[in-house]
Specification:
1 helix; 4-stranded mixed β-sheet; mainly beta
């Protein structure tokens, strides 16, 4: 009897363990099914996400013919004022045509005629904006920064409405360039990070070799400079400043029929040959935004020697682009 009892008890224990194992397996199977379901949902989500029109050429994977944009920095291109008229330097001022390293744009719009108001044309690209710094501002962290004659933006031509476009408008937001500077009798090189957009949110900015911390919104005319101090006896830190409101030149030859908001830095240029989009294109179209940097770094020249020397009283008055000509397939 004891033997039978012992056996029955062991058998009961085995059955209980088997039931426990079965329950654990059921739970594990359910968990595995849930994990597979989550993985499937995430996979569908990632496949369903698509890029917005105007992604960077380095990120976008477009099929079919594309509309490709690039910058060209031209120191010989005609120098214009805010109204699109040829401009010379005022008495007591000097100008330098900088060596441009890069530039970015926040907005590109194609306009059919001179009566098309800003925002009513074909918007080909608009960059990301943020309110992290308070007011709405361009997100510099996500800006498309382009070097000379290198493509920075590619969008399918199929995303552009067919039509004939005579003008292009571009909100230029960031410039990085080198200019010579005289500092305490030393002739050195200075790199400027110049922000000319309506409002830009900055975290930290790599000017050339040095990082400048900002963590704030900055209005049009904010700048940071770094002087190459490799030939100087001491280290020169980066410095920042803010140009007065309205001091940045923003050429708009359509000011009478299609004005732009003050402080926006939306430069307007006319196609020498209008851009025609039929919707039946079979090849890429490249648009080169040729920007005039003809004496675009303008300063009050206290000594009249044409050399930018802040210690001698020279003061920067303008860092705006001096015109833009959009060329098709240049």
């Amino acid at each position: 009897m004891n033997s039978m009892f012992s056996f029955d008890r062991d058998k009961t224990g085995i059955c209980e363990r088997n039931r426990s194992l079965s329950f654990i397996q059921i739970v594990l199977n359910l968990r595995m099914k849930k994990l597979l379901l989550v993985a499937l949902i995430l996979g569908l989500f990632s496949v369903g996400c698509k890029k917005e029109k105007g992604d960077s050429i380095t990120n976008a994977v477009a099929t079919g013919p594309n509309l490709i944009f690039k910058f060209k920095f031209d120191s010989t291109q005609i120098r214009l004022d805010n109204l699109g008229n040829p401009a010379t330097l005022p008495s007591g001022h000097s100008g330098i045509s900088p060596v441009f390293n890069s530039m970015s744009t926040h907005y590109i719009e194609l306009s059919p005629d001179e009566f098309t108001f800003l925002g009513q044309g074909e918007i080909a690209y608009k960059g990301l904006e943020t309110t992290l710094g308070g007011d709405t501002a361009v997100s510099f962290q996500h800006a498309l920064i382009a070097e000379n004659e290198l493509p920075f933006l590619s969008i399918p031509i199929s995303e552009i409405n067919p039509g004939t476009y005579r003008y292009l408008r571009s909100s230029l937001t960031y410039q990085n360039y080198d200019v010579p500077v005289r500092h305490l009798s030393y002739d050195l090189n200075m790199t400027l990070a110049s922000f000319v957009g309506f409002n830009t949110h900055l975290t930290d900015v790599l000017v050339k070799t040095k990082v400048h911390l900002v963590n704030a919104n900055k209005l049009q005319g904010y700048w940071i400079f770094e002087i190459d101090d490799s030939g100087f006896p001491i280290t020169i830190p980066t410095e920042e400043g803010q140009a007065p409101a309205g001091a940045t030149t923003v050429p708009n030859p359509l000011f009478a029929s299609s004005p732009i908001p003050a402080g926006s830095c939306v430069v307007t240029g006319e196609f020498p040959t209008p851009l025609s989009i039929t919707g039946n294109e079979s090849e890429d179209i490249t648009i080169t935004l040729s920007v005039s940097i003809n004496q675009s770094f303008e300063f009050i020249d206290a000594t009249g020697d044409g050399i930018f020397e802040p210690a001698a009283g020279d003061t920067v008055v303008d860092m705006g682009i001096r015109g833009m000509i959009p060329y098709v397939n240049l």
